[in-house]
Amino acid sequence: MIKWSQDKERTAKAESQEVMKMMTLKVTFSDGDELVTRINFRTEQEARNYYIGKTFNTGSISDNMVKAVSVEILEQEVSR
């Protein structure tokens, strides 16, 4: 039990020390629509976890609730 807690603490500390990166992502939704967006994350996995499997409203006139099914990292740059 103590080891798991220490490992979790170490992982959280390492993640918090990683540099934020401005990423350009292409998010693909379950209806085939795609969104290209720029957002700050520390890791590619963090970006994927934020989108994949979550439902987003992509409608502009009326609601269109769709799940994100994939994320492609198009570009990364270290934030200053």
What are the salient characteristics of this protein?
80 residues, alpha+beta, four-stranded antiparallel β-sheet
Report the order of strands and helices.
HEEHEE
Average pLDDT:
86
Structural class: alpha+beta
What Rg, in angstroms, do the CA atoms define?
A: 16 Å
Largest sheet: 4 strands, antiparallel
Treating each run of at least 4 consecutive H or I residues as one helix, how many helices? 2
Kindly report the spatial arrangement of strands forming the biggest sheet. Answer: 2-1-4-3
- Number of DSSP E strands: 4
What proportion strand? 35-45%
How many domains in all?
Answer: 1
Helix fraction by DSSP (H/I, runs of at least 4): 25-40%
The end-to-end span amounts to: 39 Å
Pick out the low-confidence regions: none
Question: What overall geometry do the principal axes of the alpha carbons give?
Answer: globular
Short description:
This protein is α+β, with helices and mostly antiparallel strands and 80 residues long.
